From TrEMBL, chain A:
Name listed for the protein in its UniProt record: Cation:proton antiporter
Pfam family, one: MbhE
Annotated keywords: Cell membrane, Membrane, Transmembrane, Transmembrane helix
Domain Na+/H+ antiporter MnhB subunit-related protein stretches: 98-221
InterPro entries hit by this protein: CPA3_antiporter_subunitB, MnhB, MrpA_C/MbhE
GO annotation, cellular component aspect: plasma membrane
Domain MrpA C-terminal/MbhE: 33-86
Automatic annotation (TrEMBL), chain B:
Signal sequence extent: none
Coiled-coil regions listed in the entry: none
This protein's UniProt keywords: Cell membrane, Membrane, Transmembrane, Transmembrane helix
Subcellular location: Cell membrane
Organism: Thermococcus pacificus
Membrane topology: Multi-pass membrane protein
Protein name: Cation:proton antiporter
Lineage: Archaea, Methanobacteriati, Methanobacteriota, Thermococci, Thermococcales
Keyword DNA repair attributed: no
A cellular-component GO term for this protein: plasma membrane
Spans traversing the lipid bilayer: 6-22, 29-51, 71-97
Length: 235, 114
């Protein structure tokens, strides 16, 4: 009881301190410095309509590369921590007929919608990470509904590595053409899609990179789910 | 007077911190960590809000002067993914702890045996 009381008192002090600090940051007022520059120039500089994805992929592409790396390391780490010689799914309870039939119907639609999200990252809310997470949800649904379902490991791991490589490759092509890593060569050198901003075939390399990221995130999260659902079996 | 969004974000951070400090079950501590992450993300996004403006997608009549700050949203997109990655790692460590010790109580996990 004493411990809890002490914790609550110290947390209230921390909360008061945080609130004092935030009192100097008024809510809902225009404080944009770089943000206004991004909003003013996003259309002619990147061809994207969605300013958030332009910032994520184009202006601050290094952050996204680091983010993809973090997710890749997490996926590898989960695989390494849970590695055993013989791991199988030991679940015995098959889903009910409503669940299995619903999954059969729903899984393709979820995957289609995930692909829609990451292909239209430069036009609509979303992008590679939400799209990839949606695709992983479809695989999670398959895992939950069918006790025998397993993702094809070999193919998944190869796809994951290949799309990660192709992200770096797109950046390296930019280095060769434009002089710096992750340079948007499709938009700034080729000028491809300049006259249809706001349509699908615009946005420079944002759709390309987001397709790559979407596939990568989808396969990685499915791999994490797969690793966590398996248990060790004795011979 | 502090905004309700800031208050909610700080409250979420404190609730998460409370769970990490007081709870003894590893899974409950991880839930606390996730709640804390949510609070931090909510705080970041609410700092970027500008009254009366809409999402930073410049179409359908929303010009550069009608959108909120896109930078905190990009930042939070990164932070969410990193949160998911760390949670996945921590959960697999929790699975290993339960396999090795047969308990998830932090007071009973004394010796770090292989």
């Amino acid at each position: 009881m004493l411990k809890r009381a002490l914790a609550i008192i110290s947390l209230l002090i921390i909360g008061y301190w945080l609130a004092q600090g935030l009192a100097g940051v008024p809510f809902g007022q225009d404080r944009m410095l770089v943000g206004q520059y991004y909003l003013d120039h996003v259309k002619e500089q990147t061809g994207a309509v969605n300013a958030v994805t332009a910032v994520v992929v184009n202006y601050r592409g290094f952050d996204t590369l680091g983010e993809v790396t973090v997710l890749f390391i997490a996926s590898t780490g989960v695989g390494a921590l849970l590695w055993r010689k013989k791991r199988e799914r030991t679940a015995k309870t098959e889903g009910s007929i409503v669940l299995t039939t619903g999954t059969r119907l729903l899984a393709p639609f979820i995957m289609l919608f995930g692909a829609y999200i990451f292909i239209h990252g430069h036009l609509t809310p979303g992008g590679g990470f939400p799209g990839g997470a949606t695709i992983a949800t479809a695989f999670l649904l398959l895992y939950m509904a069918f006790t025998v379902y397993e993702i094809p490991h070999k193919a998944f791991e190869k796809v994951e590595g290949a799309v990660g490589m192709s992200y770096v490759l797109v950046g390296l092509i930019g280095l060769a053409i434009g002089g710096y890593f992750l340079f948007d060569w499709i938009w700034q050198t080729w000028g491809w899609g300049h006259n249809n901003i706001g349509r699908l075939f615009s946005g420079g390399f944002i759709p390309v990179i987001y397709t790559v990221i979407g596939i990568k995130v989808g396969t990685e999260l499915s791999g994490i789910v797969d690793n966590m659902l398996k248990e060790e079996v004795r011979e | 007077m502090i905004s309700v969004y800031y208050f909610g974000a700080i409250a979420l951070i404190l609730i998460g911190l409370y769970a990490v400090l007081v709870k003894k079950n590893v899974l409950k501590m991880l839930i606390g960590l996730s709640i804390m992450e949510t609070g931090v993300n909510l705080l970041l996004v609410s700092v970027g809000y500008i009254s009366g403006r809409s999402a930073p997608i410049l179409s359908e009549g929303i010009g550069p002067n009608g959108a909120v700050d896109p930078i905190p949203q990009a930042l939070v997109l990164t932070a969410i993914v990193i949160g998911v990655a760390t949670t996945a790692m921590a959960l697999s460590v929790a699975i290993l702890i339960h396999e090795k010790y047969g308990t998830l109580n932090v007071e009973e996990i004394r010796r770090l045996r292989g």
